Queue: 4 jobs
Job 1
Amino acid sequence: MNADSGKMATAGFHKINMLLLGLTPVAFALSPSPFAMPVDIALGLALPIHAHIGMNYVITDYAPKISKGIVGPCRIAMLGLTAFTVLGLLKLNTTGEGLTETVKKLWRGLPKEEKKK
């Protein structure tokens, strides 16, 4: 649960950051194709893990200012949220259109037949 302690956590955080920097443009270049699915799955794991470690840094810095006893419950809540996010993105990537195609839909307009309604 203590995802922000130790050199290994910090090194992992930075390595995942570099992985995300490389995978994100590759995902957008490959989508929509069958080759995008493994990249989407990798992003669906890397993004929540990166956020989890980063938010644990925030919890370590700011939760004790609220109350000393709130750090543990905050970490448990963050772990639950991370697990829920990983499962949701995994479902999107395996049974839906995938993470990249879903994000691309934000910039595409509605199809013409839906605009008329």
Note: Residues 46-93 form one domain.
Job 2
Amino acid sequence: MGYVNDGLRIYFLCSAQSQKVQNLRRDKRISLTIDHDTSDPMAITGLSMAAVAEPVNDPAEVEKAMGVLGARYPEYAAFPIPKMEEFLIFRVAPKVISVLAYSKEFGHTDLVTL
């Protein structure tokens, strides 16, 4: 899933009718990883997080998130802009972060305290 970040604050968009939105309405807790694909499992590096995802309702924060999105993905400017009622912007707030460093040993993580 695509995302943008502003420091530790992460944003993503999704369809208002999606299964993801239905699930988040029931439980805002999420787990996620941010990494890159590698063919060597011992080269895995990235972040693993326990977080909370909440819809962004403040128009100023929506505008800020859309600005960050446009800056990261300028190619999206050519796509038609969906109507606000068709999608939601979520703010993800990490609660626990682990740094993945499999080069140290398979499955190695270092816990980051927030």
Note: The two ends are 24 Å apart (CA to CA).
Job 3
Amino acid sequence: MQDWMGHHFGLIVPFYFAGLWVAICYFASFLSGWHLLSKRFQTKGEFHGPKRILQSADMRFNSRYNGCLTVGADSSGLFLVPLFIFRLGHPPLLVPWSEILTQRKKRFFGLMDVVELQLGRSEEVPLTINMKLAAWIEAAVGTDWPTGYPKATPSPPRLIG
């Protein structure tokens, strides 16, 4: 067996790493809640609204999608899809605004403002984004931005004195 592995090591290694990559991508999909959301919000069509590439977001259980998301927004909803190499287990999502709640939060000991979007009324999967991306989404959708929580527009700076 060792002799066979020694001769075929170059063939085994790529299959090992490919299998590991598939397992990691699917595990991340289940952990983050993406798989749960895809059951109701998977989209097969092309998204034609405004999009921003290489965006970052956090999802549940501290799952981070750093610089690998394409985020789109229009009156139909919030569009999310990762870069091609991370797409296994992560089909494109289009979550309608009626299924999203927003809430401003503070992170890092209250020093950083973020916006948490709760995706899916029944799934309740959090998607945390920075204020800059939230303001862009809000501007792209206008009056369709989810109500019930404060808007994502950054508040004016406080004067100390």
Note: Helices lie at 2-32, 34-41, 131-141.
Job 4
Amino acid sequence: MNEPLKRSVRVRCPVDHAFAVFTDRIDLWWPSSHRMLTDSRLRMEARVGGRFFERTNAGDEKKLGEVVRWEPPHRVTYTWYPGAISAPTEVDVSFTPDGDFTVVDVTHAEGDSRLGEAWNQRVVKFASAWTEVLPAFVNYLASAAKE
């Protein structure tokens, strides 16, 4: 199996708040530049088997993934279809308390070890995407804390 992509951020808020913002309020912080549909809203259904999708006001919908682990407020794992060749990848996000902060660890992995060389090509794009998506999460939490 190829090496998974790992990213971490540290945010100044309790674990339950970081988890809720990442999952329940994902539409508020996820960058529009990283959506498949124009003027869409993102939603992650709060349960194992729940859909992670985006939908336009006109009703057009794109499946982004499916929740495979739901352990509030410490972990959510979902499949990720964008960029998929033959099978979705898997994103695992954990939330760990650290004093007045929460450490958010993201592990983006093959999901299906049969991807082989395809993962090595795709992981470069995923790495680039996470350098925009995670800072958007951090910035949203920081700006919401000032309100």
Note: Residues 5-29+68-146 form a domain with the Alpha-D-Glucose-1,6-Bisphosphate; Chain A, domain 4 fold (CATH 3.30.530.20).
